[in-house]
Amino acid sequence: MHRKLYYIQTFGCQMNDHDSQVLAGMLEELGYAQANAPEEASIILLNTCCVRGNAENRLYGHLGNLKPLKEANPGLILGVCGCMVQQASEREKLENEYPYVDLVIGTHNIHRLPVLLSMVMQGQRVFEVWDENKEGIPEDLPILRPESHHALVTIMYGCNNFCSYCIVPHVRGRERSRKPEDILREIRNLADAGVSEITLLGQNVNSYGKDLEADIDFSRLLAMVNEVPGIKRIRFTTSHPKDLSPSLIQAMKNLEKVCEHLHLPVQSGSTRILQKMNRKYTREDYLNLVRSLREAIPDIALTTDIIVGFPGETEEDFLDTVSLVREVGYDGAFTFIYSPRIGTAAASYPDHVPEEEKKDRLYRLNEVVNAFAYEANKQLLGSIQEILVEGPSEKSAAIYQGRTGSNKLVHFELPATMTVKPGQELSLRIVEAKTWTLTGEVVEKDFKS
Length: 449
Ligand code: SAH
Ligand code: SF4
Ligand code: F3S
Description:
This protein is 33% helix and 22% strand. By secondary structure, it is α/β, with parallel strands linked by helices. α7 (218-226) runs parallel beside α8 and α11 packs parallel to α12. It is globular and about 60 Å long. Residues 159, 161-163, 166, 168-169, 203-204, 240 line the site of iron/sulfur cluster.
């Protein structure tokens, strides 16, 4: 008999992605298999994000598109999970305006999927969302990871920072760190299964361990992960500048498996705006951190997140952001237009910047960000870079791709006599630089079949 199929669509960040992998793992254990398209599936789950308004709008667009599928196949189970449904207002909207949604699960109870699904199969419409998980972090949930060489490993959940614009602490709850022994056991198992690169995940990994009894912090956790045989590269995200300790800089410098890349969201280059954002550092604090990082790790690649159009942001504040971007010379940046989120402090701040102005600032900022990203890539022309192979590129099966330790995407062709496997390390000479990608050539010493 054919296995029944499921389809999961992820709208959010890597945390959301990780949750989707757990949802998939549970469905596989129940005997379902992954569908290639929603049309084939008997269960569709939409794993939502609400960090900005456009993520939510996209979700409602998709839900509308799925309505005909549900009408054609009343047995189809349509579920909505993730950050968005932690908000009562969105739950009400789903309940009243989207009667064809059968199942809603929040961020704290995804492990309840099997139980809730069986209730739906008995004909109930099930909405279950918790404010927190009183039982603590569920360990050893099944998980289906899409890649064989790379894995996301959550080290902590939630966030305590309450940046004034941000909904995440409201929908993900307070910081909860996993125990180091649980994390290490998972990583050892991954290494045994052939994974060579891991990304440690948390909203603010730099405060890892503060809520644990064990005497541990993030830099010590990194040192322990560095010892796991078989793991070649360790990445992590995200770091809050206020908690980036000198010991973490030393750990990045001394631990050979920790990649020379740091994503360090700055959000704004204006101290006045940073204060209103409740970021707890100044422009100078941030620039001093960057200086210390570059002193310790001269070839470190730095990327960031920036918001334009925060309430009250003047042209002068915006120009402070642009000048900070120039001063740091980022390798890349995710740039966003401020989006008011109901329930956050900033939503009630005065002086909302007009939409046209926000768009114009984003455009001008991106011009500068892109120019520096291109410049950083051009610096690598002619150099030999060690990459970790990911596999054939998205564009063409004949062109492979991999990443440098600094997280730059490199495309390359394989000599006819050569084969490579995902997770393998390879030296490439960089022969072409574009804004977002590099092209490399296999260096002769690595020619082997
Ligand atoms: N925990 C991470 C970020 C999570 S959200 C951190 O602190 O760095 C990812 C990014 O989305 C943020 O860094 C911020 O730049 C952006 N963001 C968050 N809330 C936003 C909002 N209301 N409007 C626009 N961008 C937002
Ligand atoms: Fe949001 Fe700030 Fe927490 Fe990041 S640190 S998730 S931006 S509140
Ligand atoms: Fe991530 Fe979006 Fe939730 S950014 S934590 S999926 S609100």
